[in-house]
């Protein structure tokens, strides 16, 4: 079953029920009004997005910045060409693309494919769109094939198999709608330019002129939609194992729901108002920045081969994934890349809860390389949280291959 609008999502309907209860509390009525307005704006935003871009088979997924979508629709609500160009520019922003990629590591079948995803990102940035498209198509097919017990890649799925429970990609103009072009056969050779993600024609060599930024960006758009579908499948299984929600249980959730909504609204405002900064050696801001200090500790321990201490600075996702074996996993990953020395060159604080530390690494063999360490300020559940919320700066993309990804090594 596909959702006719965002309002049909189970979580949306549950939130409406919670607001009905909350209205009974006089002191909460102002919050109810504000939250209801936010929900209505979200519903309208999704519909407006599809009104402009659904015929070009773009998908509204959870990784898209609502602020960016609002800007696009505010400037190009009646101009699909302009809206598409602005959406592509959003993906081409390296920081935005990095932020969209972070949640993918929570899916084991996708985490194994992140080295390929990183190569696709390098190709995309360099304008090698043909390579980016092929790599992402293979990642999507392999991921879907591995994700479910029924071993079939994305190209072998019917649109109705891509219903995403309680997810905006389950919209009737979302993933299932766009999938029809993904699998459409192309037997005759086509030399003219193509701007759709026709997987079968591209992979089988009948579509020749797909080397452009539109098709490559649609491949990223589809990748994020497919991972949202996977998250939705997991959530649906958990929902089916949970007893039906009663009004009494719903009432107990109202306080948590309101607190989360208010907190998320504040975080969104911080993100929208944030101004990126770069700190260089010789400044107090550079010396005192927690990510620089964390990098100094981590790299010192790396040089000393103190892999156990390094674990304390690694994202909690790694601890959740490997459990008690995390220390041995860190050792296994890092001992193949011994360091002899390092210099920290810069801290780019480009998002409230994320920054990139650039360092010069001297390896035991080979010339020094300039590498990037991506830090996230995360809460106890490994979600990005800016100040003033509780959180710790941790290295989120911790595998050595990722640290060296942009070094040319």
Verbal overview:
- There is one protein chain.
- It is built from 18 helices and seven strands.
- It has 409 residues and is α+β, with helices and mostly antiparallel strands.
- It has two domains: 6-268, no CATH class; 276-403, NTF2-like, domain 1 (Nuclear Transport Factor 2, Chain: A), CATH 3.10.450.100.
- The strands form two sheets. A five-stranded antiparallel sheet has the order 3-4-5-6-7, covered by helices on one side. A two-stranded parallel sheet has the order 1-2.
- Strand 1, helix 10 (199-203) and strand 2 form a beta-alpha-beta unit.
Jot down its keywords.
18 helices; two-stranded parallel sheet; alpha+beta; 5-stranded antiparallel sheet; 409 residues; Nuclear Transport Factor 2, Chain: A
Give a brief outline of the structure:
The chain has 18 helices and seven strands.
Helices and strands in order:
Layout: H1 10-22, H2 29-53, H3 66-76, H4 80-92, H5 94-101, H6 108-111, H7 114-126, H8 129-147, H9 175-182, E1 190-193, H10 199-203, E2 207-209, H11 213-240, H12 247-273, E3 277-279, H13 284-288, H14 290-304, H15 307-310, H16 316-322, H17 326-334, E4 339-351, E5 354-363, E6 369-378, E7 392-395, H18 400-403
Parallel strand pairs: 1-2
Antiparallel strand pairs: 3-4, 4-5, 5-6, 6-7
Number of strands: 7
Which runs of at least 5 residues are low in confidence (pLDDT < 50)? none
Query: How many domains?
Result: 2
Put simply, the count of helices is 18
Largest sheet: 5 strands, antiparallel
- Mean pLDDT across the residues is 86
Q: Would you list the SSEs in sequence order as H and E?
A: HHHHHHHHHEHEHHEHHHHHEEEEH
As laid out across the biggest beta sheet, the strand order is 3-4-5-6-7
Give the overall form.
globular
Distance between the termini: 48 Å
